[in-house]
Amino acid sequence: MESCEIARLPEELVSAALSLTSPRDACRAAAVSPAFRAAADSDAVWACFLPPLADQPPLADGEALLACGKKDLFLRLSGSSVLLPGGLMSMWLDRETAAKCYMVAARELSIAWRDTPQHWTWIPLEDSRFSDSAELIWVCWLEIRGKIHSKMLSQGSTYAVYTVYKLAEEPDGLNFPVNASVSVGGSILASKVCLQRDPHMIHPEDVALPHQRVDGWMELELGEFVCEAGEDGDVSFGLSETESLYCKSGLILQGIEIRCKN
């Protein structure tokens, strides 16, 4: 009886209700109720989970945005990242919330001594999203900075910032804590992080440690922030050690990721 009553509802009304939920809820509605399926899969619902057309990135190999349905496009943009024009930033959608997420390539970051070959070199890696990554040969002064404009993000979403990297075979000096910071709207979150886990060292509980990703890279959280409604400015983030000045080497940096924290 309940399914019959649901089936009598106008599809436009069901679509309007589902568009106020989330991608996950829309998929659940399509799966649990045949009466909801047509509305839950409609362009009217999935268009609400996509960025405005002007903000949608070009897809790889010239794939046309308008050639597929809105749900297919969402699944495409949430299934893997796409490179933005210039090749120095990639973007994707969070599958649960539809929030826009990004990775900023190492080439787009401000890295102290990056153009000095005895300190940093640029290497191509097949499993990198970008054309090359930055490999740290050795430095005493480690400083990596980046930023993204808040208008590129999804307002009302909570984001976390991650350094995405690998370690060379014999890294040096990366098992000591370094400074991390995330700032937005005049508010600065500072913390201590460590790029390399070392079973022989015991760090304070407030020092963040890296985690292995399924794609073979490592990630280290630098901090989190909320992209408030009406925010209009840069979100800045960084990683540095400029006080103890001990030798550091063996970091292979792909970029810094800004993604929704569910």
UniProtKB/TrEMBL annotation:
Residues 3-49 form the F-box domain. It holds the Pfam family F-box-like. Gene3D superfamilies: 1.20.1280.50. InterPro entries: F-box-like_dom_sf, F-box_dom, PP2-like. It comes from the Eukaryota. PANTHER family: F-BOX DOMAIN-CONTAINING PROTEIN. This is F-box domain-containing protein. It comes from Triticum turgidum subsp. durum (Durum wheat).
